[in-house]
Amino acid sequence: MEVTCDLMKYAGPLCRTAFSINLIIIICKKYREQRQSSFINADKISCYKCLIMIETTFYGDYGEESSRSLPVEWSNIHDQALERAYTDSILQGTVTPLLKRELHLKIQCKRLSEGKQELEIQEERPPKNYALSEEEILKRNKRLDQNKASAVRSRVRFRQREEELMREVNTLEQTRRTLVRMRDKLKKDISELQTSLLNHVNECKNEHLKCQAELRLRSITFHSNTMQPSCS
Cross-referenced Pfam families, in alphabetical order (predicted)? Predict the structure, then answer.
């Protein structure tokens, strides 16, 4: 038994049990009933055709004209959760909601066959709005006042901390300016000392050369006097 349809991959997991076959058949019936419905758009037509092919294929073994009967008579079952899953599957264009409902029913069936209680799933309910009592109103107002007071204290602490940080910044800025002035003064003193030392070194060097020149001059004068012949 083969069904040649590209969308069979979406319905494949549903074709593994007789229970799933019945689920597919009832989906196809409902699709057929609501074929002209306004909320079945063009995007759902391919899925509809796929399910009709599945229905036609499986009716050969499980159809109403067959000697076999369906394991479950769906016309006698009113499952609101299944109806919601069916509607969601149409709107979303996927069989995921039906798969989830099928899995839930399989789990329930297994638990009942083992003698266990049904697994109750609490559905999310919208919160109920009811009038507050006088005591609850007083508690709410007190809580709001406490929240406001806490917010005021937080803002005061924030401003105090901000002012403290600003004072610290100003102090550090003054210290920085003082250190910059001290640095500039030290640079100036170092420059003056370097100039004085350089002048002193230059003076010492010139004096030394002067002394050496005088010594050389005296030496040359002495040797020149001794080397001259005496006149008589």
Answer: bZIP_1
